[in-house]
Amino acid sequence: MSQKQQPPSYQRNALLPGFIALALLIVAVAFIGTDWFTVFRFIIAILALIVAWFAVQARHWWWVPVFVAIAVLWNPVYPFNFSGIFWILAQPIAGSVFLIAGALIKRPRD
After folding, report:
1. Tens of pLDDT along 46-75?
2. Which key words are in the record (predicted)?
3. Any idea where the domains of the chain sit in the sequence?
4. Per the confidence metrics, is the pTM higher than 0.85?
């Protein structure tokens, strides 16, 4: 007999923005130092604020300062002029943080 499956009791709203940010941050390494990197910075900063908002909604407050820091570091309005190996390594590290947070930030399904 087939049993009726219940939907998951939690939803992970930050998972999709986390995957998108991870992909963009990996691709962004190839564009460091070009004008296109500014576009990546806009998108990453916005996605960081979106994930921070999902963390607030899920009451996972400890993620908020992490993603506010990412939004500040990747902001294109008042950019930090990072370069070299630090900035190249920061991209996949931040992507990993997005992915981990996306998997861990969950809230009860309404």
Report:
1. 999 999 999 999 999 999 999 999 999 999
2. Membrane, Transmembrane, Transmembrane helix
3. 12-108
4. yes
